[in-house]
Structures are given as structure tokens and as C-alpha cells.
Request: fold
Amino acid sequence: MTSLSAERRDLDAALERSGFYPMLVADVVHDALDGRAPLSHVVQLETHFDRTEVHRHITVLVLTEDMLVVAHVDDQQLDDAGEHVMAQISTESVPVSQIRSVVLSYVYAQPQNYTSTDQARELTLAIAWTGGQRLDMGPAGCADPECDADHGYTGTIAQEDIVLRVSVEADGAEAVENAKFFARSLRKANTGPAGTGHAAAPEAQGSVTGRFSRNRHLR
Reply:
């Protein structure tokens, strides 16, 4: 078996471990791949509780030689008993050459004692490709506690299409390393020879299956 076929088996195994409609999600992801061979992947499963309802969401990122495939699947109960459930699915295929930035942010504990063998406690991966920007705004204020004047609004602008966060505490040390591997693979493909967006297959395969904090802007 080639490394690429092994990576496809790893992708299917990660979807199976997630336990979130694995056959459905696998079919959707492979349909979006359209015959392309996966090089690396990330599988993110989240569970949200809303009073008496439980909502789940899965995000799957799959990197191929020339494409980043992003799939989102949500489920929703249509009745109180939970006997009728609906799944909502969206996929996006992004040419690697169109990815504008791959940002990695690290959190290290006790940096004053850092050594080269220390692992980051937390990693955040932000990927931007559309050029769209997220604007977070709120009422502006001043330092005077007695002031009741209208100071307008203030905010921050961030360029990002998807943000994933993984930590040692929540997901384990291996998950952090695997997230770093995926980011390196994506960065390598995006900055391939002569800026073509093509890169050779990575030397190893990695996957992430864990709890990420989601900041999605894909619908």
C-alpha cells in the first residue's frame, strides 16, 4: 500500500472514531475530494448542550496536492423525543494556490524555563483564503468613570476563514503535534516550487480528532 492510500485509511478511521454519522460524513468528504488523494487531515467534533437538546457539529479539513477540502456537518432534533433528526452538510473546495495565509499561534507554559524539547500547551490554526475580514465591534468608552458621553464604537478586524484551537489539556499532546503537522503540510503545499501551490507528499501522515474551539465563517 502507498502512503497516500494509508492516509485515506487514516482519514476513514478518524471519521469512524468520531462516531458522528461516520458513513454519511465519509461519503460527503470523499465526494468533495472528487478522486483526489488525501495528504493530511483534521477531524474536529464538537458537542453543544442547549437546555434539553444536544447539538453536534463536525468539521473535516482534508489537504490534497492542489486542494483544501472543508466539510461541515450539523445535526438538529426535529422533535422533543429526538426521534426525528436532520443533518445539514456543507463543503467547500479551496485551491491551495488561493490560500492567502496560514497562521499558527502557540501558548507555552512557564516560558522562563523553556527548553527546545518543550511542547506548546495550546495551538491555534487560522487559515484565510477569501480575503474576507471579520469585524468585532463594541461600544467605545473612556477612562473617566463619570463620563456618559457617546464615544461611538471600537473594534478589531481579523482576516480568517476558519480557526481551530487544540490544547494538551483538552485533546492531548499527540493532537497538538498532529495539528502542527497538518499546518506544516498546508504551508508546504501553499508555498511549493515556483509558487505553484503544489508540493510533494509529506513524509508522515497525521490526523487530529478532538475538541477544538470553533470560530467558523463558513455556512
